[in-house]
């Protein structure tokens, strides 16, 4: 970035270009299939004709990328399934007698679950007018 010799400030055009470059760098810092394909095409265009790229290595790289994408997809699906299971478990508590340990007092509390909220990443269950995280509930008894 060129600096103004008198004030030491950066001109507006240079600053805007630097901000745009930073934003695009933050946008995609992981290697996805699109980036891989661009790199592969560039590599093929610029390869030495007397020493072409090893096709076995190229296929290996593509296989590794495909494997990584499948693992990423499976992880996303597993996280969504876990979230759905937590929501179902919380909804099934409504109308049941539940117990938990109050974090502020350390005492055991029990009461009937009257409502469920999905506003946070962990569902909360309303017991005796107090919202309690689902993972804090330690016991369930049919009402």
From TrEMBL:
InterPro entries recorded: FlgD (IPR005648)
Top-rank lineage group of the source organism: Bacteria
UniProt entry keywords in alphabetical sequence: Bacterial flagellum biogenesis, Cell projection, Cilium, Flagellum
Database matches in Pfam families = FlgD (PF03963)
A GO biological process held by the record = bacterial-type flagellum organization
Q: Which family does it belong to?
A: Belongs to the FlgD family.
Descriptive protein name: Flagellar hook capping protein
- Species this chain originates from: Curtobacterium oceanosedimentum
Read off the lineage from the record. Bacteria, Bacillati, Actinomycetota, Actinomycetes, Micrococcales
